[in-house]
Amino acid sequence: MRWYRQLRYKLFFSHLIIVVIADVVLLATAGFFARAGLVDVAPLTLGAAASETGPIEPTGVGAVEPPLLQQFEAVLQQALFVSGFAALITAVVVSLFVSRRIVEPLHTLSTVSSRLAEGFYRERTRISSDDEIAQLSQSVNQLADALEQTERRRLALLADVTHELRTPLATIGGYMEGLLDGVIKPNPPTFKMILQETNRLQRLIEDLELLSRVEAGQLPVVARCTEVEKVLEEVAAQFEPLFAANQVTLRMELPRQLPVVWADPDRVSQVVINILSNACRYTPAGGVVRVSAAYNERLVQVTIRDSGVGISAEHLPHVFERFYRVDKSRARQSGGSGIGLAIARHLIYAQGGEIWAASEGEGKGTSFYFTLPIAPGAFEMGPGLSLPPAAVEAP
């Protein structure tokens, strides 16, 4: 960049031009009014005609002698030139100071922005002031924090995906190597184990693909009038054998009639399947899982509460993050991929709802809540008929 295009020099020359114009105008205006005032309206003390016998009387218009007028103009111009030069020097000093105060922070912001663009997300600006530039600096730092967190999540995601893919592949490779070496006999249990790991690998790949599509907004969500109680009952019927095998009781505690919601029944089913799978997985034998619902004039809230292992307060805010597990060893042994709740969150958000979790601590069970908007006109069941609104628990 050429020097005359830099901001500091533009500010300097703008201040300088303002001072020069002010000086020229001041000189011209002062000279004009000084001459007009001395010639046309002479003061009493100048040009007075002294009388030896009487009082001093003014001589009137034009009584100021030309040498005196010229001398006064010269003194006035000299004073104006001195003051103008002093103003010019002051303007230069102030301009340099202001230019430095403005340009240097902007240069710092530009440098930090360039470093962030190059991938150095730990760079921060340190501008100690209380103006718009400081606010801009704070915004840049917030952007840097967000980029750094995103980069950490990306690296953690790569590490988690690598680990999750490596585990079933290592198992399959070990069994196949044992079969080739004759260490493992080719019997049905061996083939069943290889098939299970293959299915696990396939499920993980499908979940990753689904998560990437959901986060990119590429997963179609076709909202329509949906009877949410019917979706809940259908999913519960699918899980009854699994709950019975784990000796866990599944109870449906739905109201007599729920209003119709505006949602995609297939995506709602996916969300309920993810939550019920976790509830069944982490609820010990003899436990109970309850599915209930409430509604008001705007939305329907579904609650799935279990009496399982619970979640501590430090882990609760992270349960909807990708690959986050409260107990990693237990989750891997039970086959969870760690992204089911992340998918559920995006699916609920895509349908205009909210989803959150609550737990009183370890060993005290966990409750999952999600809301769905009520379809327009859902309460108009007939002439003069409407469903009474129920209280919906807030997150």
Automatic annotation (TrEMBL):
Chain coiled-coil ranges: 133-160
Catalysis: reaction(s): ATP + protein L-histidine = ADP + protein N-phospho-L-histidine
Enzyme class of the recorded protein, top EC level: transferase
EC number: 2.7.13.3
Keywords tagged on the record: Coiled coil, Kinase, Membrane, Phosphoprotein, Transferase, Transmembrane, Transmembrane helix, Two-component regulatory system
GO MF annotation terms: phosphorelay sensor kinase activity
Ranges where the HAMP domain occurs: 100-152
Stretches that traverse the bilayer: 12-34, 75-98
Compartment(s): Membrane
Domain Histidine kinase: 160-376
Gene Ontology cellular component list: membrane
Name used for this protein in its record: histidine kinase
Organism: Candidatus Viridilinea mediisalina
